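Why predict the complex rather than its parts? Because the way molecules touch one another can change local conformation, and only a joint prediction can capture that. The input here totals 543 residues.
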Amino acid sequence: MNAIRVSWLFFKVGVLNELQYRVNFVVQLFQSAIALVVGLLVLALVYSHTDELNGWSQSELLCLLGIQILMGGAIKVSVQPNMMRLIDEVRDGKLDHALTKPEDAQVLVSVREVRIWQVVDFVTGLAVLGVGLSRITTDVGALDALAFGAALVLGAAMIYCFWLAIATGAFWVVNMWHVADLFDGVFQTGRWPIGIYPGWLRYSVTFLVPVAFAVTVPAQAVTSRLQWQTLVLATLFAVALFAFTRWFWRFGLRRYSGASA
Amino acid sequence: MSVGAEAAPRREAGRLRSMADLYLTTMRLAVQQQFQYRTANYFWMLGMVAEPVIYLVVWTTIADQQGGSVNGLTAGYFAAYYIVWTLVRNMNIVFGAPFWEERIREGELNKDLLRPVLPLHYDIAFFAGWKVVVIVLWIPIAIGLSLVFDPTLDPRPAEIAVFAVAIWGAYLIRTMFQEALGMLCFWTTRGAAIFDLWMTTELLLSGRLVPLPLMPDWVQDVSRFLPFQWAFFFPIETLVGDLSDEELLRGLGAQLLWTLIGLAIFRVAWKHAIKRYSAVGG
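Output of the joint prediction:
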């Protein structure tokens, strides 16, 4: 309970801090617009040469694109900036500041940063998803919507776990942000149906980097192709991953000896 | 009078020699420095592989769905295209326009201006040296990708020779235009918007996104009159495509032309920009 109150407080302060820099909003708007235009052009280009890709129509892929942008926005608002800061602080010893506080350290390192302007991506993604849904002929039932929400939350949790595991790696390897750099590229795989990738890549972006769980599974829910087994698997995997990350984080923390002090 | 006339060519020769020396030394320094950071370089290059692999898988899927080819391009062609892509993309990494902002803001430029030659020379030489490291590191990546994706690659010796030249042509074109674009930083601190627009145009018209024949005809027509494809599509096509000797030579000519145009724009912009510069920090 206390954790939620602390998170909310950090969120408020972070937002107030970011709101000072209003021009950044325009900059973000511009960048999101460019990214969106490119995404839509690529989609148009692909579907000018074919009617369906691995069984997905253009409108369905539009939903997928929307969810990928939305999830990307959510990651950049909170997960990524917090984890990048963690990697930096392990290196230069500033993590001491977080560890000496009476709150759970994992909660603290996960909520300190907020990049509120990235919300633009989140909203853009929602809009794209909305347009995509309006063009799909099959109806999205209440059960689908519920599954969609659940899949989205589970996916976000898994992405968070992935990032925390990578950031925890910084206790052993100094140059961890190179690995972090890889994420942006790999996350782009989420723009296409997971079925088109060769097996080794499909498994990698499902279980190694959980892009498929974060983007494809929610998209399967809104396009009525989700099987309940997938959702069960997602839940089990999310729980397992969270438990593992929690253990790994504590294990790594024992290696931390502080560098500044 | 006659002494001066004799001294001039000798001075010119000396200048050329010291310039060559500057280039070689800077390149050697870059090679040594970047080999130290080979792990960092590797992660960075591996990160870049995700992009072409995604494009490759998408277009291969479409080709397979349509009985083997899209617009006459086969799955093997796509594999070859996007594997060679990874090298050309790396050759396209130059001293980018956004770095000019840092150079000015941090006062780095003060130091550069004290040197007797333009910063441009250092940039070209340093990144060229870096490329040598990149090419060496690229070979295992190319072998790995070839084993996974089965490319169709059957170049003639002339095509291989032109490719070896054309990747450096691509490097020079991109360098000139990025440096010229970077001059905007002398006027504004918000160049990023323009750089983003430029990069996006580049992405669409250079062949980075898809082989240009997949683009609508009018896009291909437009891109014919722009520098982008000569720094990306053309070098790939020399190796992967089926160009005649005449087309190969014409392509190299276009690369030379665009390099000179970029250089001219840079020189003019630099002349005006440097008058506006007043040292900050340093």
